[in-house]
Design a protein that fits this description.
The structure holds 2 protein chains of 2 kinds. Chain A is mostly beta strands. Chain A has 15 helices and 55 strands. Chain B starts with a helix and ends in an 11-residue tail after the last helix. The chains are: A mainly beta, B mainly alpha.
Chain lengths: 1062, 547
């Protein structure tokens, strides 16, 4: 607010009022002081006026949201008599009836009011689009939104606080066009995958965050409520000033710092508490159904289950047991309910901000506690943050911020084989969770999983990660002459991460046991600093406006890793330390070179903005980046950008088009790099440790390079072109933004495959090329129908098309091996989208033996010689008369065709309704649990859908038969049976709030009190049969996009909240 | 005054000037760069050790590559040597468990076969490491004798890896130095004969520089020896004779190499056959080469920081500890006859007592047997739920040397020596006790009661073809379930006949390459697929027949 006023002062031609404002704003005298000052002025005026003068009182508010307008000018037309409104919008003025009262404020339409002797006056100022001069941050500076030439999305703190999360990215999901955010899973504390304008590159498509000038890839130290504004720089002309960090977009975050309007400190208190539950569970077979299917798998294979001779003892016993289960109609264990629970979430958050002439501050603290809906998962976070700014001297200001965050979370086992979520679907329902008779965990009966999920999830309690982070900065800014400033900022970041895993001793069966107990302790300290220094020069002369910036930045990052283990540690929590271990301590050294590194960067950058007549805008930027990741010859990258803007509304022809309040065209081109794609030291050949062998009955160490190095590594470069239109209609009640972009990423740093016969890890290489193009569309309609009712509806939709242009010499990359299925499931081809699901197409099942035998090729040979009635018919796509890998085709992909967000805010009197809908459409997923839960052998548990499988008794179905030996490979051949439509539309949040009326507030001495009830993920519309259609990259590998291996489901959350502002 | 203040601030803030090149160069922390590593003998030894490491890899992860997201399959030697032959069935939890093994066994596998892909990848990892050492060592300033030994060990290992490849795939891509990326896709497949020539060359060099077993210090126990190099030379030549003798080898060579070993005095038969595969039999008098294993408590169950092998868990009893693969076939059991004590040391079944524990049985076992030679004493099981077994993997035993010697002698018309060698082995077998822990609760070697063991000598009357059959049969029994049967059948031209039915025989015939053996006859060598990507992306052509 204060910036906006400050800035516009320069543009105001009204001299005297300007002066008053200047005193008020810039020098920031305490407002009582201002009143005294005005009293003096007024006393001068009073001497001049005649005896008919009356004293009028009034209040000035905004027409759109009924908020008081501070420092509006109120003066009598044709005189120098005037005043300004106070902090509550109130004013008093002595005036004669018949005189005209002028009420004006920057950014609003001026009201001229003919005074007729009224005692109290109420004015509502309407926004004047000509003068709304929102300032936006663009990196090392800020510009008026109207001068912006790049593509950028802004998100307000209010929107970020709507969902019950402390993860800023989760709060951002769906709110900005072209920004696609996916949770890797619903587990509390999981990282979000953020993709700005698609998958920019192969190895690292994460955007960079710039928090108050500090570059970072981790913003967990911020609460959504700490954020003042968030700008997402999407195209190169906006992000190129960040050079090698800009390729995947830049998210600029400005945190709250108080206000320099002197007043009492403002206190914000927000809290909510609620309960979460799994948004859905998967219908699995119970014990009786399981037993029926298992028997069916034998019957269908021609085994007469009534005639098994006792000589075949084990099968005899098994069939006997299965029959017993069926006869007694046992229901057995519902493993999902053994794991899932209703879980609490609560959040308390206190913010205090204030300031004065010489200082501004914002202090916040928060406590967040979220239990996971899977037992023993959960996250607790405590945040403290202080942000302060000091104006030491007229020419010098500075500030500092400091945050401390403590996060504690437990980890549930998510391994493909032993993970609790996958085993909950695999384990047979006959097995009991807890054997109360023998006081131990239930032993596996049939499913051969040998990993009781209830036991494993119980152990999660002892797998705790704790992170302490300290993040801060200190900066000074010098003003040399008006418009020329120099700013120096030093940022630091330190994190100490400790994870302790205790694996207790247990004996479930001879195949499920742990002895002795084990304690693992892992520590990762990480630190970095960034120092940036830059000059800014602003000058406006006549119709020319110019802004220049240049500077330099250096950065150093460090990380190391150590993991140790000890055996035979007592089970009580107080003993979970090495000192209580009864066996000697073993050291585990990690081999991952990604863990132990130092990295430095040095950059020089600059920007020039030129605006002519406020109509024609030009921006050019450049950046040189040098990185320690490359050898001396390839170290430096140059990243320029240019962009143009045209404020068409200001052209004469549009001047009188009243319904059109804003029209601007933007076009830009830029080059940006990506430094995150490559690990450190990849241009040097280094010896990897831990190549263990044994001599003389002792383990001995071995060392050898295990990956190839590549001296030629250089920067990966993206070229982005962007064309956009911003339009506003009907006094900006309706706003529209359309952007088209085309982005080519060249020299993508990938680990390009080498033949296996190279026998070594493939090196990084600047090998692949890819393009992304798309359209983003954003429409917003906000209006105030009358004093009681207003609404704000925003809708965004984006379409992105991804195309691989080259893969470094190979024409395809196969990936996506999952669990039991020993074949690749995705294929990435040059000229095509990334990571298609690639497999066989099926054509229903053979309903009879004749039908199966009739499936022959031109030579009369059977295409599926092992197929019987009830087996799947696979299509011989290439018509070569047989089924082989060449019959595979594209079966879908995890990349959505489009994503959308719909945000609705309705406010009627004291009530408000907020709702947010997020949709991801036109994507598919591989339900990787299919191999387990739709397996013909029925060893692991099956989905309830399996009950409809083909059998002699149940023909005319589309579910293939049970078969213990499955000679037709019905499911172990990757086909469209695995692939499901995973589009979804989700009611991400809906909330109803009630704000206390002003009268009550006054009694409470509060400015705002709002209570609300809210629900997250209340409804999800999808055809997908797994837990959740929101699926990340399996193993964090983009080539595995859309493979769902029992992803932790998202919770449905119901909560009530309270926010108070004093 | 004001201006001075401003400039002092600027000076303070920008006082520190960076030297770009120094600021941007970071020496790797925590690890050495390759170019200086070999300057030190201790370091060089570490590099040689890393070449051995690959010997224990029974499964992938394959080297980092975007197409690998996780594991490749298993490639334990018994998958090929035993399961591909008439000696064993797949086993596991049921037909869907490791289905690819069954497809491979029935010669229905495709070029996506994990087992062969992993094997290919692992063996080339070993070869890369050897090449890396062999390229760097010659310029190293370390002691010449030590250097020679290191070179010998490394050459031996390179030959070992190539020999594995040539047996599974036929002729492969021959690489003798570190490669640069531009060579990817440009290296041709060599012929079977060229590949064998390369191997023989490496082994001859190794045999010429490596010390005898007794010349090593105790701490080096397990390193490649002259005996091991000669043993492999004999085996490599013998395989060529039966399959593809493009390098014109002769049985005399096999005889010479084995005879040198026999006469070296370094080896003898372990007195009690039952002891060979137990802990106390590790690196015993009979051990010519074995892969050294120990559980690495700080390691994983796979890959380079594993210290042992997964072969034990793979073949262990599902009802006790293991996955129940590699079930010995009834046919093999009949081969032993009734009173050969080696049978009990080779297979066990339901109710048998192993290490003092009575065995329960898993219903889906494909045969009533499991491999006793791969059984692991419960006391030696890895801690926790680990899979890392400390069981050394015997690769060449002295009895194998004797049998090779016998076979060579037979072909050299020296039937007396041939019979003498077999009888040496049979005599030792007669002294075999019951396997370890054959009574419940005990873990000792109990002798058989008198008359329970009958293994007559091969009489002089057995001659000609009968003698050869006797040698082959002795090999099958003596070396049963040790992963040799498949290749013994192939090199003696009996493999396809031994397959169970016509469909599988036909499948197999589609996947054979042809060679001319020592007799001038065409031999059919069944081979597994070259990994699909190697063929389709990297021009390792031609693909093996039928894939």
């Amino acid at each position: 607010m204060i910036n906006f006023l400050n800035y516009n002062l320069k543009r105001n031609s009204n001299g005297s009022c300007n002066r008053i404002q200047k005193i008020f704003n810039i020098n920031s005298i305490h407002y009582r002081g201002i009143l005294i000052f005005f009293a003096l002025i007024l006393s001068v005026s009073i001497q001049q006026v005649s005896a008919q003068v009356v004293r009028a009182e009034g209040i000035v508010r905004t027409a759109t949201d009924n908020k008081p307008v501070i420092a509006a000018n109120v003066y009598i037309e044709g005189t120098t008599t005037g005043t300004i409104t106070d902090i509550n919008g109130n004013f008093e003025i002595d005036i004669e009836p018949g005189q005209n009262l002028v009420i004006s404020s920057i950014g609003y339409k001026t009201i001229i009011f003919s005074f007729k002797g009224e005692k109290t006056l109420n004015f509502f100022l309407e926004e004047d689009v000509q003068f709304i001069e929102e300032l936006v941050f663009i990196g090392y500076g800020k510009v008026r939104k109207s001068d912006l030439t790049g593509s950028l999305s802004s998100v307000k703190t209010e929107e970020l606080q709507q969902t019950a999360t402390v993860d800023v990215m989760q709060a951002l999901q769906g709110r900005a066009a072209g920004v696609h955010i996916t949770a890797q899973s619903g587990e509390p504390g999981e990282k979000m995958k953020v993709r700005i304008r698609g998958i920019g590159t192969i190895n690292n498509s994460d955007p960079v965050f710039i928090v108050d000038g500090m570059p970072t890839d981790d913003i967990s130290f911020l609460m959504p409520s700490d954020i003042e504004t968030m700008e997402i720089l999407k195209d190169a002309s906006a992000s190129a000033v960040y050079g090698s960090r800009g390729a995947n977009g830049v998210i600029l975050i400005t945190t709250k710092t108080g206000t320099s309007i002197p007043k009492e400190a403002e206190i914000n208190f927000n809290s909510y508490a609620g309960v979460q539950m799994a948004s859905r569970t998967i219908k699995m077979c119970d014990a009786t159904e399981y037993a029926q299917l298992k028997l069916l798998s034998y019957i269908n294979d021609g085994i007469d289950i009534n005639q098994i001779s006792p000589a075949n003892e084990s099968l005899y016993k098994e069939v006997d047991k299965l029959k017993y289960i069926i006869d007694n109609e046992f229901r057995g264990t519902d493993w999902q309910s053994e794991l899932l629970r209703p879980a609490m979430v609560q959040n308390y958050n206190l913010g205090i901000s204030g300031g004065g002439e010489k200082y501004r501050y914002h202090l916040s603290s928060a406590y967040f506690d979220q239990e996971g809906i899977v037992k023993n998962s959960g996250l607790t976070r405590i945040n403290f943050r202080l942000n302060a700014e000091f104006h030491h001297k007229e020419w010098l200001k500075g500030g500092s911020s400091a945050s401390y965050v403590n996060t504690e979370r437990t980890y549930i086992d998510k391994d493909l084989y032993t993970g609790v979520l996958t085993t909950a679907l695999r384990a047979d329902p006959v097995t009991i969770a807890w054997d109360s008779r023998n006081e131990k965990w239930g032993a596996d009966q049939f499913s051969q999983v040998h990993n009781n999920p209830a036991r494993r999830v119980y152990e999660s309690e002892f797998d705790v990660g704790r992170s302490d982070k300290f993040i801060g900065n200190i900066w000074q800014e010098i003003t040399f002459i008006e418009g020329l400033t120099f700013k120096s900022q030093y940022n630091f970041y330190y994190e100490n991460y400790i994870r302790k895993t205790y694996l207790p001793e247990f004996f479930v069966s001879s195949k499920e046991l742990k002895s002795p107990s084990e304690l693992l302790d892992e520590r990762i300290p990480e630190s970095n600093w960034t120092w940036s220094n830059f000059f800014n020069y602003n000058r406006i002369k006549d119709i020319h406006s110019i802004n220049l910036m240049f500077g330099s930045e250096s950065q150093k990052m460090k990380s190391s890793h150590v993991k140790m283990g000890a055996y035979n540690v007592p089970s009580d929590a107080a003993s979970h330390y090495f000192s209580s271990a009864k066996d000697k301590i073993n050291f585990t050294l990690t081999t991952d070179p990604g863990y132990l590194w130092e990295q430095t960067m040095l950059s020089f950058f600059g920007r020039a903005n030129y605006t002519f007549s406020e109509k024609y805008l030009f921006t050019g930027t450049f950046r040189f980046d040098g990185s320690s990741k490359f050898s001396e010859d390839n170290r430096w990258g140059f990243f320029p950008s240019f962009s143009l803007g045209w404020n068409m509304k200001r052209e004469d022809i549009f001047k009188n088009v009243n319904f059109l309040s804003d029209l601007k065209m933007r076009a830009g081109w830029g080059k940006v790099g990506n430094e995150g794609s490559v690990l450190n030291y990849q241009y040097m050949s280094t010896m990897s440790p831990d190549q263990i062998y044994v001599f003389g009955n002792q383990l001995v160490e071995g060392r050898i390079p295990t990956t190839m190095s590549n001296k030629e590594l250089r920067w990966e470069v993206s070229q982005m072109t962007n064309i956009g239109i911003d339009a506003g209609f009907l006094n900006r009640k309706l706003e529209l933004t359309i952007d088209y972009f085309y982005k080519i990423t060249k020299d993508i740093l990938v680990i390009t495959p080498v033949p296996y016969y190279f026998g070594t890890g493939a090196p990084y290489d600047n090998a692949a090329d890819m393009s992304n193009s798309g359209i983003e569309f954003l429409i917003n309609n906000r209006n105030r129908i009358n004093e009681d009712f207003r609404y704000d509806i925003g809708f965004n939709i984006s379409f992105i098309k991804n195309k691989i242009r080259g893969l470094g010499g190979v024409d395809m990359i196969e990936s996506g091996k999952i669990g039991k299925l020993e074949a690749f499931t995705t294929k990435t081809l040059v000229g095509d989208e990334m990571a298609w699901f690639f497999g066989y197409k099926t054509d229903g099942i053979f309903q009879s033996q004749e039908e199966a035998e009739a499936y022959i090729n031109s030579e009369g040979k059977r295409i599926q010689p092992n197929a019987q009635a009830g087996d799947v018919k696979f299509i011989d796509l290439n018509h070569d008369g047989g089924l082989d890998a060449n019959d595979r085709t594209k079966l879908g992909s995890g990349n959505p065709d489009f994503t959308l967000g719909l945000n609705v805010i309705l406010q009627y009197k004291y009530f408000d309704l907020k709702s947010f809908i997020h949709g991801v459409l036109g994507k598919e997923a591989i339900n990787a649990m299919t191999a387990n839960n739709m397996n013909p052998d029925g060893i692991e548990n099956s989905r309830a859908a399996r009950l409809n499988s083909w059998s002699e008794e149940n023909q005319n179905t589309d579910v293939y038969r049970m078969s213990y030996s499955d000679p037709n490979n019905n499911i172990m051949r990757f086909s469209d049976l695995w692939v499901e439509d995973a589009s979804y539309i989700r009611l991400r949040n809906i909330q109803v709030g009630f704000s206390l009326p002003e009268k009550l507030l006054k009694n409470m001495k509060a400015q705002e009190v709002r209570i609300y009830v809210s629900a997250d993920n209340l409804l999800t519309y999808t055809k997908y049969s797994g837990w959740d259609p929101e699926i990340g990259d399996l193993f964090d590998n983009p080539f595995n996009n859309g493979i769902d291996m029992g992803t932790y489901p998202h919770a449905k959350t119901f909560l009530t909240g309270l926010s108070i502002r004093f | 005054m004001i201006w001075t203040g401003r400039f002092i601030w600027i000076l303070i803030l920008t006082a520190c000037c960076f030297s770009c090149s120094e600021f941007l160069f970071n020496e790797p922390i925590g690890r050495a760069t390759e170019n200086v590593f070999y300057n030190d003998a201790g370091n060089a030894e570490l590099a040689v050790n890393a070449c051995y490491d690959v010997l224990t890899w029974g499964q992938g992860p394959i080297p980092t590559s975007p197409s690998s997201s996780g594991y490749l399959g298993h490639c334990e030697e018994f998958l090929f040597g035993d399961i591909l032959s008439d000696d064993a069935l797949k086993g596991g939890s049921g037909p869907s468990d490791e289905k690819q093994i069954q497809e491979m066994k029935e010669w229905r596998a495709t070029a996506d076969l994990d087992k062969s892909t992993t094997l290919w990848s692992n063996m080339y990892s070993g070869i890369f490491r050897c090449n890396s050492v062999l390229a760097n060592l010659p310029d190293s300033p370390i002691d010449e004798n030590l250097k020679k030994r290191f070179m010998g060990e490394t050459s031996f290992l390179r030959a070992y890896y190539y020999f594995y490849l040539v047996r599974i795939f036929g002729g492969v891509v021959l690489i003798d130095q570190p490669l640069s990326k531009s060579q990817a896709g440009k290296l041709p497949r060599s012929t079977v004969a060229e590949t064998y020539a390369f191997i023989v060359n490496d082994l001859r060099y190794a045999a010429s520089v490596l010390p005898e077993r007794s010349d090593y210090e105790a701490k080096d126990l397990g390193r490649a020896t002259r005996g091991a190099a000669l043993g492999y030379l004999a085996r490599v030549v013998m395989y060529q004779l039966g399959t593809d003798n493009g390098n014109d080898h002769s049985w005399e060579e096999v005889f010479q190499y084995t005879d040198t070993i026999i006469k070296s005095g370094q080896y003898s038969l372990t007195a009690n056959y039952a002891e060979i595969f137990e802990t106390e039999g590790e690196n015993g008098p009979e051990s010519v080469f074995e892969i050294q294993c120990l559980e690495n408590p700080a390691g994983e169950d796979w890959g380079s920081i594993m210290g042992g092998t997964m072969a034990s868990v793979f073949q262990g009893n599902r009802e006790h500890w293991g996955w129940g693969f590699n079930n010995p076939a009834e046919d093999l059991v009949y081969e032993f006859g009734e009173k050969d004590p080696r049978l009990a040391c080779t297979v066990y079944g339901e109710g048998d007592i192993v290490y003092g524990v009575k065995q329960k049985w898993y219903s889906a076992s494909e045969s009533p047997y499991l491999n006793r030679k791969a059984a692991l004493d419960p006391a030696l099981r890895p801690s926790g739920d680990g899979k890392d077994s400390p069981s050394n993997q015997r690769k060449i035993r002295f009895s194998d040397i004797l049998l090779m010697n016998a076979e060579a002698a037979y072909y050299m018309m020296n039937e007396t020596i041939a019979r003498q060698r077999i009888n040496q082995i049979r005599a030792r077998a007669r002294n075999c006790t019951k396997p370890k822990g054959s009574s419940e609760g005990t873990n000792i070697y109990e002798p058989y009661p008198a008359g329970a063991v009958i293994i007559p000598d091969i009489p002089a009357s057995v001659s000609g073809r009968d003698l050869l059959e006797a040698i082959w049969k002795e090999r099958r029994i003596e070396l049963a379930m040790e992963g040799f049967r498949f290749w013994d059948l192939v090199r003696t031209g009996r493999y396809i006949d031994a397959l169970p039915d016509e469909t599988i025989k036909n499948n197999c015939r589609m996947h054979c390459i042809e060679g001319i053996n020592i007799d001038g006859n065409t031999s059919y060598i069944p081979v597994l697929p070259i990994p699909r990507t190697e063929v389709e992306s990297w021009n390792v052509t031609p693909q093996n027949p039928g894939y």
